[in-house]
Design goal:
The protein is an all-alpha fold. It has one domain. The protein has 3 helices and no strands. InterPro entries: DUF883_C, DUF883_N, YqjD/ElaB. One of its GO terms (molecular function) is ribosome binding.
Length: 105
Amino acid sequence: MTETTEQLALGRQKIIQDLNVLLTDSQEMLRLAAAVPGEGLEALRDRLRTHVDSVQHALADAQISAQRRYRSASVQTERYVRQNPWQSLGIAAGVGFVLGMLAAR
């Protein structure tokens, strides 16, 4: 993995973690708001419920998208390795050599 790819992966993980925290906090606020009486709070509860639902859908969509990309990448990698075994072996040896050189520093 390149440094940029690793940073993107870490960024995605951070976004997912932040969304999970936001979702948990929103659910807690909704639970607390349900116990408070009042006319204005009904509108707040509705908006909060809509917000929680949209965050849940966004997280589910992100998870499904990530799973699809992972499956696609693994199928494509396997297909390439099966079609080009010697080239794959050469690439793996080259990457191993470069990593060995970097680790020796």
